[in-house]
């Protein structure tokens, strides 16, 4: 086996945790949406998601202040809009209007759903003890929505520096899980 050293600054692209999502928050002037890829499931019931948001992001203050957000899961067809949302700040522009995304009222939180996404998870912050040190918010999913018309959506995954991977073929193996 041959090996070469790999830059530590690029390790995150090797252990990418899941699909790139759009995280929405409610703001006083307007809602905001950001591309986000550093998240992980932490518990099944109630569903808990660990979500890292840098304090350099406009969404950080909105999430910290409201304690609520929506995790909207886009399919590959939205990749261009997702990347554009990740390359600018909601402090300067209305990303929903600029990138043609449709905010839809959620039922449990003030942050909007994203109509174009095949799944939307309404979330509340349930643990902020690691926010100051790591930017890690623990979110409880309090309501989940899917578009029943969308079958087998292909998600996008962040590999770093503008590189995205599209989810591929699904395989099913025997499992004892119920």
TrEMBL record:
GO terms for molecular function: FMN binding; oxidoreductase activity, acting on the CH-NH group of donors, NAD or NADP as acceptor. Its cofactor is FMN. Pfam families: Flavin_Reduct. Residues 13-164 form the Flavin reductase like domain. The keyword Kinase does not apply. Gene3D superfamilies: Electron Transport, Fmn-binding Protein, Chain A. The keyword Flavoprotein applies. It comes from the Bacteria. Keywords: Flavoprotein. Belongs to the flavoredoxin family. This is Flavin reductase.
